[in-house]
Specification:
Rossmann fold, five-stranded parallel beta sheet, single chain, 5 strands, alpha/beta, 179 residues
Length: 179
């Protein structure tokens, strides 16, 4: 049976390095016989969480922006993939805000069980991804039965397109194809 894979790309740059890996992952998912859809955070129009907890009793956010439009898509995914550039040793602000705004999912019956992380950064030390992994794992830990199933982490990429000079696109494609 085909899996529904939802890929969240948080890169603010068109064709940014993490976005390039997200697209390769999606291509692998489709070549593997599954369905991939990509949500570009920069395109959904998203405000910051107000911390009001309205979502906990209404299963949606009180803020009328792009988040409510994609909640069902995320909830009904079999697999979630978060793609992010690493800024100051953590996920991008765009992804952090997005994760905060997914709070309505906490009270819903979600189908996703596997989460994948795709991340790129300028630093070449693998420890530069520690904060990014911790942030995503913290979100995962809020959902029973959900696990980090895999990741593609690529350092030493700064300029748009640098990732194409690494083996990370192939790794992202292969990981997506194996789902």
């Amino acid at each position: 049976m085909s899996k529904n894979v939802v890929i969240i790309s948080s890169s603010p740059r068109i064709n940014g390095n993490s976005d390039t890996l997200a697209r390769e992952f999606a291509r692998g998912v489709e070549d593997g016989g599954n369905k991939a859809s990509v949500i570009e955070i920069k395109d959904i129009g998203m405000e910051f969480c107000k911390g009001c907890l309205y979502c906990q009793s209404h299963e949606r956010c009180i803020i009328n922006d792009g988040i409510n439009k994609i909640l069902d898509t995320v909830q009904n995914a079999d697999v979630l993939v978060f793609a992010t550039p690493v800024y100051y040793y953590c996920v991008s602000g765009q992804l952090k805000t997005f994760l905060d705004r997914l709070n309505p999912l906490y009270v819903r019956k979600n189908t996703f069980k596997d989460v994948y992380l795709i991340a790129t950064c300028a630093d070449d030390d693998i420890s530069a991804f520690d904060g990014t992994r911790k942030c995503v794992q913290g979100w995962i830990d809020c959902f029973e039965g959900v696990k980090l199933a895999g990741s593609v982490l690529c350092g030493n990429v700064t300029d748009v397109g640098d990732v194409r000079n690494t083996d990370a696109p192939k790794k992202a494609y292969e990981l997506g194809r194996k789902i």
